[in-house]
Amino acid sequence: VANEGGKHWTVNEVRALIRIWSDKNIQQQLEGTVRNKRIFEQVAARLQKFGIDRDWKQCRTKYKNLKHEYKSVKSAQDSGGTSKSTKFFNELDAILGHTTMEQTSKSDNDESERPPEWTEAKSEKDSIG
Length: 129
Prior knowledge:
By secondary structure, this protein is mostly helical. 62% of the residues lie in helices and 0% in strands.
């Protein structure tokens, strides 16, 4: 599997990437720049601490793909087609939907600590673009 991104990302690797991405500091840096190599080098270094060996390019590619996937699911939902989904939609919505995500950056157990408003109260916030 020697494609552009190297080996496939596991669910745990993606979760770790999303957890790092959910860090307010990282989000602010990513929002403020297009030249983001240094930011993704930080992300890759933090993944290393979880024992995940990815370089900055792999992190940036995965980030872009997740963002694209999220946006296409989001626009499908907004146009009434809710059948489309992505595995990490709730986590991504917490970041990209600009809801608060304090819990996830501190917890190791996303599933049990997901605030109820992530699932219920999305519709009001989503229309702000």
